Amino acid sequence: IAGITQAPTSQILAAGRRMTLRCTQDMRHNAMYWYRQDLGLGLRLIHYSNTAGTTGKGEVPDGYSVSRANTDDFPLTLASAVPSQTSVYFCASSVSGTNTGELFFGEGSRLTVL
Amino acid sequence: GQNIDQPTEMTATEGAIVQINCTYQTSGFNGLFWYQQHAGEAPTFLSYNVLDGLEEKGRFSSFLSRSKGYSYLLLKELQMKDSASYLCAVTGSNYQLIWGAGTKLIIKP
After folding, report:
1. Peptide linkage before A8 cis (omega within 30 of 0)
2. Residues in chain A closer than 8 A to B100 (CB atoms)
3. Per-residue model confidence as pLDDT tens digits over A59-80
4. What is the pLDDT of residues B55-73, one digit of tens each?
5. Which residues lie below 8 Å from residue A62, measured CB to CB, with a gap of 6+?
6. If both were cysteines, with which of A20, A23, A52, B20 could B73 make a disulfide (CB 3.0 to 4.6 Å apart)?
7. Please, which residues bridge with residue A73 across strands?
8. Exposed, middle or buried by CB within 10 Å (0-12, 13-18, 19+), for A5?
9. CA distance A55 to A68
10. Buried b / exposed e along A37-71 (16+ C-beta atoms within 10 A)
11. Chain A CB contacts of B42 below 8 Å
């Protein structure tokens, strides 16, 4: 039982480099999300997708892009990383995009931008 | 604006009971969640309240008062493994999920 798989688990990246965080789910959930979590702050939504082929901006989308070519995969790309993007990134999924059901989270990707 | 408040940190004793409060101000309401997050791990779902009252699930219970914009998570018979952060989140009128910063619960023997 995999659920949601994120890769890489941890990465140190030089500022200005491009980075893609991968996320794959095997639960056939319609909705997927990318959050960042920083000390002292709540989870903040970066981008979301309510169904394959559609994406939307969350609370903190600047500097990030996503795609949802199929149901299972939802990669997050940092086009040109900056130190303020140092954070723990969580991918999550749910049956629907109404936020009235349980979110299932991946184990997280810890990103350090130097 | 929309806001969720919960205490930053709480300490309790093994075997005791602890109540973690969450107050919220949102435009509309479509449910309140509690998640547990151990250090270095992903959040995991604990409870979902959409109607007023108490929902009990084993040692954990969650209470909601929509008129007061208030919820609490009650943990009974505390165990050392309950040491974790507890996250409160509310679904607003546009079905956006708003998260509190979390309450770090420290359990002492």
Report:
1. yes
2. 42
3. 999 999 999 999 999 999 999 9
4. 999 999 999 999 999 999 9
5. none
6. B20
7. A24
8. middle
9. 7
10. beeeebbebbbbbbeeeebeebebbeebebebeeb
11. 90, 105-108
